[in-house]
Amino acid sequence: MVSRSGPGYAHHLSRFAQTLGLAGVLVACLTVFGLGGGQAAQTGVTAVASAACGPVQYEGSARAQALIVSDLPLRGASSKRSQQMNDAIRLVLRAAGWRAGKRRVAFQPCDDSDPATGLWSKSICQANATAYAADPSVLGVVGTYNSGCAEVIIPLLGDAPGGGVAMVSPGNTLVCLTQPSPECNGGEPSSLYPRRHNYARVVPNDAYQGAGLAVFAKQRGLRRMYVLYAGGDPTSLGQARTFRGAARKLHVKIVGFSAWDVSASSYVALMRRVARTSPNGVLLAGLTEENGALLIKHKVAVLGRNKGKVKLLAPDGFAQQSTIDLAGSAARGMFTSVPGRVPQNLSGPGRRLVSELRKVAGGTVELYAPYAGQAAEVLLDAIARGGSRASVIAAMLKTRIRDGITGSFSILPSGDPSVGPITVSVARKSFVPVRELHPGAGLVRAARHG
Length: 450
Prior knowledge:
- By secondary structure, the chain is of the alpha/beta class.
- The protein has two domains: 2-204 and 342-419, Rossmann fold (3-Layer(aba) Sandwich); 207-339 and 423-448, 3-Layer(aba) Sandwich (Rossmann fold), CATH 3.40.50.
- The protein has helices at 6-20, 23-29, 40-43, 79-95, 122-134, 147-158, 206-219, 234-249, 268-275, 292-303, 321-327, 349-361, 368-385, 389-396, 441-448, and strands at residues 2-5, 30-31, 34-35, 66-72, 99-100, 103-111, 138-143, 166-169, 199-201, 224-230, 253-260, 281-285, 311-314, 335-339, 399-404, 407-410, 422-427, 431-437.
- The strands form four sheets. Strands 11-10-12-13-14-17-18 form a seven-stranded mixed sheet, with helices on both faces. Strands 5-6-4-7-8-9 form a six-stranded mixed sheet, with helices on both faces.
- A hairpin with a 2-residue loop joins strand 15 and strand 16.
- Helix 9 (268-275) packs across helix 10.
- The longest helix has 18 residues, at 368-385.
- The chain is globular, with a radius of gyration of 21 Å.
- 58% of the residues are buried.
């Protein structure tokens, strides 16, 4: 079994913090892709041959022997979050001395977003996965953030030479990546793993999030909910369905269930239609990047402030600072859920990593940054235990974490973490946590079946 002892990581991070000195030293080392910019020729590994990838980064004293890459959207509204996720990966590598056991490991950040839209792109995800699979230096991928991109990448990495490439996600929440559900229309999850299961995640899936949000809605006295989801986005539809399934079990009435057009220039008519159902709560399942800011503004314009009679709830696609920045005062008072614990609630190694990230970021630490650090830890442990690509995958799927960055958990055979806390926050100048929920197994099952 792979294990990570909290004190061991804490020792590395504490030593790193002492070595680091002033935060400005670290900030001065940042490039557009983060710390440093090691050259592949100096590291001893082969850089992934893709224009979507930045330079190989490595600060070890001898030539690197393996490479891990990140696959995240580095443009658009998600750019700040993704940059912090890469910062967390580098901090974890530095704390570990750029080693996984006896093996020296380098890092290369890659971008899966479309330059024109800032959203993940199927063609870029395919191209990235093909490049990772073809590079024998790559033993693991930290990513993706977007579940749709993961659906593209997982089978391509599973078919990679050498027994496949391990992939650990710090942000995917789509149920179908790991478990069957009525929303899985393409034979998922089995169809994603035609040769081998090569995927794990360190965040709870959307069934936990839907269940947690439904519990929160009932606790707030919201008995009539209207559910909106981003049209054309299967992940958003999945999140909407998980909330609906859990809400029904809790006897919260769903008074409407419909899509919003992500390219619309106005949502006033949509919100008037919502108003006619007399809800006391609206759920938005989607992404800020899917015209979410305008949607929030027009909800407030038609249905009133979020602190008023009609509350506004949303899962993690809206739980980022860009939502508040783009929607302005209209976002104030809305509630968002996130899978796992928010940075403010982490303890031990997680709290220390958040402290270092705050120095790098110069402000608020985004939710998924510590989870990216945890995903990197899982990969480093797996690489330390395994030699080949296939053995790294096998070790990853036997992971057991004790007192890690995000707490204690194991990776289940499905690839899911064994624990599923959900945190709900309220939008003020930033998102402030108000409650941590632990939905029961029965309610999670109801959410999964939509």
